[in-house]
Amino acid sequence: MRAVDIIIKKRDRGELTREEIEFFIQGFVSGDVPDYQASSFAMAVLINGMTPRETTDLTLAMAHSGQMLDLSDVVDLAVDKHSSGGVGDKTSLTVLPTVAACGLPVGKMSGRGLGFSGGTLDKLESIPGYRVDLSIAEFKKQLKEKGIVLTGQSLDLAPADGKLYALRDVTGTVPSIPLIASSIMCKKIAAGAQAIVLDVKTGLGAFMETLDEARVLASLMVDIGRLAGREVVALLSDMNQPLGFAVGNSLEAIEAIETLKGGGPQDFREHCLHVCAHLLVLGKCAKDLAESRVQAEKAIADGSAFEKFRVLVQAQGGDVSFVDDTSKFTRAKFIQVIESPENGSISQIQARSVGEASVILGGGRAKKSDQIDHAVGIMIHHKVGDRVRKGEPLFTIHANDESRLAEVKEMVLGAHSFREGHVAPLPLFYD
Ligand code: URA
Hints:
alpha/beta; 46% helix; 4-stranded antiparallel β-sheet; 17 helices; 431 residues; single chain; binds uracil
């Protein structure tokens, strides 16, 4: 077999065999298939697509390109969750401790933010000392002893995806349903998850802007998981406006901690409880969603979810005094409250623009090697459907570079649209 023939076959809309896909992925990881051929392959897939069978074969080839984690000696049932990425999405920080407090051990390998979309690791690193580079042995030990782990993706797992994702990011080949589905699922499968809750975001601040696209991606991932012998539930959730109020790393960590303490924004709390409920049912801790929801609510109300987060932070070397007293998080130098320019109901808060504004402040990366500023970001003060009066605080900018304030103010003001009369709030979940 030759890599070029496989690229030509896909270019000409052929259906690749499992052997061809495995040959290509193995060659890519070993270095026999150079980056330019892999980029060309990714573009051919983006343009011509893949059948569900091809996508499953690609997923399994990438999952088997490195170590396959087996957690059966550590937990009875390995559960995992994954969000397809969005703005203000700090869900893992709240959901993991909550389900762990309900008796469901959970270990997760998360990613960093890229572009407008934030990443769990960057949020966690706003807690001084928190380690996100646990080895696989440390991961297993902590999962067994503490029942909770939240760390970075091990380089030994699914290395084909790490290499391919880096190329896709710079060759315009990210927004391809088969490539996204295989990229997400290969990591979950390699990390040993037996039951997975997928939080597939849809809207202006998500990779999948329309509900139809999100539904195709979600059902493809569910099918891949099932074919690989895993139990998978996909939720279609809204990403037209930021989730919660906070966008920016330490601001989001604080919001997640406040939610664990029983406060936090109503939409974010509700979103987390729903994800927790599904995880607890998949993890066989409850017979149905009504029972699991009560368990999750109780874990937040009685302080055990918050206590589990303290355990997690301590186990991974973080300074737990920041969790106990969130006023210790470093604050940005310039905090500017922007007032509403008009009376009316908020009809849109363009999540992507708010995420991009946070990147301009230094809260995200334009390229993987960029350093980020944990303290900066934006607090929105309203959600779609809220009525606001002219002069009322609309959002607050947290900046360390004063020269960025004017640009960010314009961007986030432009992200808000107003309308006369009633506007219905956005749903949290579509399906
Ligand atoms: N998240 C991933 O892990 N991979 C993608 O391709 C897109 C989002």
